[in-house]
């Protein structure tokens, strides 16, 4: 069953049945679908930068940046353009193909959006793909970003509609869906996924994936985050998720959205190399790359390069960078 028929009519029971397959059967199916659609040894790499940090009006129970969570995080205003460009240049030199800029906003004001537009244009001029995550957008704002040449917008559903109210109360699941529709209608690539390990059930994980794959078009990019437990957040003491359940969720995402990039996102610093290799086997083909996520650590870039080499995996951008580096050292 490797034929990639893109379905948008999955039932919850069908998705739960995939979760319940024996682990090896599930991974075999997911890897078969993966290699029918992608080079199984290539990984896409995005780097992240927090361009506006902390003091956020939302009450997301997992987040270090909510003003409601006493996490001791120091708030920072919107970064100057030059600093953003400098960070993007470093990320590009290290081999990232996409630069994702995140802001701790419920939604951007039109004035702030214009400053971000300048950042998108400048990063695009470096020859990188651009991604933003700024919170909710109106249709007019999404259109403005499209006109500026934005490639991707990240807006996660985070969890199932049923579990959503346990994690966030200051906005609704439907608010998230509306912003996703605005991004899609503007013609910007959609990046949307969620977080595992927040105390949700398997049915919630299946339900979140169902929401994603039953959208009118599958998101081009699907980040699956393992909760990073941050002291001072309500979810700091959330029960540990079985790592195999995380791998299963990646595999089911791959089966439901065969042509989407599935990103093994936050939480990799806590994972061993073997766990990450299992996630790649399950169909993950994208990572966040560079020492920092938004406010927490990510594995060191050279550790990731070593891991990819040990697995015989690569990234197109990295190959180009290595060719350039080889040319410099020969000249
Ligand atoms: N404020 C915007 C928003 O909420 O859409 C953009 C930034 S927000 C930090 C982006 C995403 O990061 C969240 O939707 C969530 O899925 C993820 N995230 C935030 N904190 C996390 C944590 N502690 N562990 C895992 N993922 C997290
Ligand atoms: C996504 O799904 N994960 C990234 C990105 N999209 C914006 C953010 C992860 C944040 C992890 C916690 C932190 O560093 O604050
Ligand atoms: Fe704000 Fe985004 Fe963090 Fe929620 S996840 S508190 S919206 S920065």
TrEMBL record:
Binds 1 [2Fe-2S] cluster. The cluster is coordinated with 3 cysteines and 1 arginine. Keywords: 2Fe-2S, 4Fe-4S, Biotin biosynthesis, Iron, Iron-sulfur, Metal-binding, S-adenosyl-L-methionine, Transferase. It catalyses: (4R,5S)-dethiobiotin + (sulfur carrier)-SH + 2 reduced [2Fe-2S]-[ferredoxin] + 2 S-adenosyl-L-methionine = (sulfur carrier)-H + biotin + 2 5'-deoxyadenosine + 2 L-methionine + 2 oxidized [2Fe-2S]-[ferredoxin]. Catalyzes the conversion of dethiobiotin (DTB) to biotin by the insertion of a sulfur atom into dethiobiotin via a radical-based mechanism. Its cofactor is [2Fe-2S] cluster; [4Fe-4S] cluster. Homodimer. Its EC number is 2.8.1.6. Belongs to the radical SAM superfamily. Biotin synthase family. SMART domains: BATS, Elp3. The gene is bioB. Pathway: Cofactor biosynthesis; biotin biosynthesis; biotin from 7,8-diaminononanoate: step 2/2. [4Fe-4S] cluster binds at residues 56, 60, 63. Signal peptide: none annotated. Residues 41-259 form the Radical SAM core domain. GO terms for biological process: biotin biosynthetic process. The lineage of its organism: Bacteria, Pseudomonadati, Pseudomonadota, Gammaproteobacteria, Chromatiales. This is Biotin synthase. [2Fe-2S] cluster binds at residues 100, 131, 191, 263. PROSITE patterns: RADICAL_SAM. One of its GO terms (molecular function) is iron ion binding. It comes from the Bacteria. HAMAP family: BioB. It comes from Candidatus Thiodiazotropha endolucinida. The keyword 4Fe-4S applies.
